[in-house]
Every structure is written in structure tokens, then in C-alpha cells.
Predict the structure of DUF3011 domain-containing protein.
Amino acid sequence: MKTVLLTLAMFISSSLAFSAEIACGSDGGMNRCPLPGADKKGVKIQQVLEGKCTFDKSWWTDSDGIVVDKGCNAVFSYKTGSSKSSGASCPSNMDQANCDYYRDGYKAGAQDRKAHLSQAYERHEGKYDSQFEKAFSSGYMAGWNK
């Protein structure tokens, strides 16, 4: 009985650690799905949608996101905790995925201001997925105005 409860507790705690998902797919060629710090987020396959997905062969992670290749199409789960090294605190109503992009925007905005660049978050267009543009731009403005 103790073994069953311990196994169940480990399953529940490990499943709670992954609260965000991202779908990423390849049509045969290489494709990167932006997810800042993916290499430190414990990315795992939640569900294979199409093709064969093998870690280090048809999918992998790096600091910029999840990379899929050779027809791998899957939904990936990842830990939502992130480094607070940017110094940014996210708005309390923001979920963790948006918060990650907010912090990246904050860091970019602070760096651009230090470099005496204009307030143009669009120059960092490749650093965020379009669905997170609002979070990135909000963070950028907060970082630029700090």
C-alpha cells in the first residue's frame, strides 16, 4: 500500500510540474518553435500528433526553443518556472508562459535603452512567438523605462 501511495504521489507531483504546453511540427524540414530557455525547462513530449519523434534525432531543445525535424509533429509539455535573472516581476494576472516572454522583453528593452536605441521592440521579432507579442512588448516597454 505504501508503494502504491508513494508511486501515486510521485506521479501527481511530476505531472503538476508541467503546466504549459506548446505544439510544434515539421513538414519534413527543420522548424524551430520559439520557447526561450527551452533547454532548461524539462521539455517532454505530451502527445505525438504525426510522424516519429525521437529526442536528439527528430526533435531537441536549445536556449531559443524546441526544434523539430523529419516530420515530427507533437505537443510538448514544459516546466513553467523560469529564471528571474532579468529583474522583471510579471503582472499578477499573467500566466507563466506569457511571463517568460515578458521577462525576455524586459531584458531586451533594458539592453536597448543602455545601448541608446529607440523604443522599437519589433527589432527583436525573432525572439518571440506572435501569440506572445503583447507580453514581450509590455515587458520591453517596462525594461526600457526602468
